[in-house]
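Dear colleagues,

As part of the handover before I leave the project, I'm documenting each prediction I ran so the next person doesn't have to rerun anything. This entry is a single chain, and its sequence is reproduced below.
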Amino acid sequence: MSMSALDRLGSALVMLLCLLYIIMLGGGTYEQMNVTKLIVTAPPASFDMLMGEFPFSPVVFWTTFRPLTILLFIVTLVLCWKKRPTRNVLLAAFGIDSLVTISTFLYFAPEVGSMISAAAANRVEGLEERAVRWYSLNYVRLAVFYVVGLLLLFAHRNFTLESKTGYEALTAPHQRMSN
């Protein structure tokens, strides 16, 4: 069974979503292992890399990739809606991603902004503890994003199998095992 034009478009979008998400994971991993690690070493002095004349600012990266991945999630979900196994994995990935993104807007982004302000004003009481907590929780957040990345790769696998051979190919191994 050959793939229709709509299936080829769906496959390309799932693949593009996987690619952009993996690039985004790379950015998040780089920040966590290199930038964030340095920031928490000796607050408030270590916060200098986020302030001053030439601060590290990943804003352009995140304001480009985050909206693109969210838009691709939505378009891909719409296009794959009739492909139940793929849709279900994409829905799970999008749901988890959305929860982590909400946590970013509610805690991670405001907290780093607050810590930068505190460091700039030389309000150091509790700053080190806050930075360490933020750093540790950021590892959890990054790990959850990696789970989403794996789900996306699994969704691409499902889509490819389902488009080439039909839904039966995904369920056949279970049916053979029960016989």
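The mean pLDDT is 89. Helices lie at 5-39, 59-79, 84-120, 127-165, 167-178.

All the best with the project,
I.
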